[in-house]
Amino acid sequence: MSGYLVWGLILLLLIGGTLFLRYRYPEGSSGRRRMKWGFWALVILIVGLFLNYTLPSHDVVRITNTYNRLTTVSWENAWAYASPDTGTGEGTQTRDIRFIEAVHDDDSVVVFRNEDTGWVWPPYFKYDSSNLHAEASNLRSDKAAPQWVMVTYYGWRLPILSIYPNAVKVRAVDSADATVLPWVNILILTALALLILMLRRMWLQFRERTIDPVVEDAGDFLEGIDAQADAARAQARGWWGRFIAWINTWRQKPRP
């Protein structure tokens, strides 16, 4: 089954589930309120995971090895890799990707991939994976004489999907306790918060000026229709009653 078909089925399930829940829980019900809070919780979770994956992270490690490896990329993990035309791809399924092996101060290991991002997402515009490979190779060290390195990267390590974080920068630091101020993350999150506040304000103004008057007019129109329908039913019942009374006058009264 192709990836496009899978994502198409997921989209249909989401649309169908949304329509079912909309008619299952009417407006104003407790179920609708729970569904609303659940929807916003899901949105916040997705946005949080997206930012956690995309924003740059920093890790102080000791580089132990750098190498190239032919890696199979399928529809399951292709979203975590760069486009084939920006790397050293051998094909759409198999690519020659650079890797960086490293060790933390507590002897836990980590593996980074070193792949160009090009102009696609995320917008790191990385085209120097060859230079980064040479820098990382030059910074290799052993446990007896460690050279600690600050690695800037994005992404996650998911062994079950063969996904690795992508290193975008390496630089030597004095010790394993070195830290860095994540000013890029601070600026992006601040700008995102301001954008959300601005969009919320714009939405409230649009709703107040455009949607609410239309809803009120529609409500008045429906109320008018209901009133006319009630009057028509009352009139019909009146005509029908008079008609039945006229019919009864034609009935022969029983003889004594």
- Overall number of domains: 3
SSE run: HHEEEHEEH
Helix content: 40-55%
CATH topology of the largest domain: OB fold (Dihydrolipoamide Acetyltransferase, E2P)
Largest sheet: 5 strands, antiparallel
Gap from first CA to last CA: 89 Å
* CATH architecture descriptor name of the largest domain: Beta Barrel
| Strand percent estimate | 15-25%
Shape, per Cα inertia axes: elongated
The number of E-state strands comes to 5
Radius of gyration: 33 Å
- The strand order across the widest sheet is 3-2-1-4-5
CATH class of the largest domain: Mainly Beta
Structural class: alpha+beta
Question: Could you tell me the mean pLDDT?
Answer: 80
Low-confidence stretches: none
Question: What features would you describe in this structure?
Answer:
By secondary structure, this protein is of the alpha+beta class. The chain has helices at 3-24, 30-54, 129-138, 183-249; strands spanning 57-72, 94-103, 109-114, 148-154, 166-172. Helices cover 48% and strands 18% of the residues. The chain folds into three domains: 3-54, no CATH class; 57-180, Beta Barrel (OB fold (Dihydrolipoamide Acetyltransferase, E2P)); 186-248. The longest helix has 67 residues, at 183-249. The radius of gyration is 33 Å and the shape is elongated.
